[in-house]
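Support reply, case 0932

Customer input (verbatim):
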Amino acid sequence: MGKRDADGRLVLVRLALATLIVALYGLSIFLDVFHFRGMWAFNSGTAASGGEVLLYGCLGIVVGAIGWYANLLFLPGLILFSPGNLQPARWIAVAALLIALSSLLLRELPNGSGLGGATPIASFGLGFYTWLSSLALLAAATFAPL
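Our regenerated output:
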């Protein structure tokens, strides 16, 4: 097997991993991310999907919830990883994962009333762990010899 064949296979492995990472991330948008104790004002429900959190999450910085901002690093990290720019992708992916992990500290989400009210989080949903696993897989893949 020549160098060219090996390089071609590595490209295919990176693209397969990138596809899996995107699939996990995309799936997380449709799954519940948070389950609440009570109703969340943004959707009048007891759960929030990944899509809803993706839509409203940027407002979290007001209350110190920065996990949503990992999404801003996801795409550049993935774009750098796919063709094999592993060093910059590694820094970006690890930063995204660390920022995302801060979401584990959330105990409540603002209810949007403007009165300082918040809806307690009862548990993290499957969508949260799917989202987190997509970021973790991207970070781990940047350390593989691909």
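We compared this against your earlier run and they match. Two observations from our side: The two ends are 17 Å apart (CA to CA). Helices lie at 3-30, 50-56, 70-81, 86-101, 126-141. Please reopen the case if you see a mismatch on your end.
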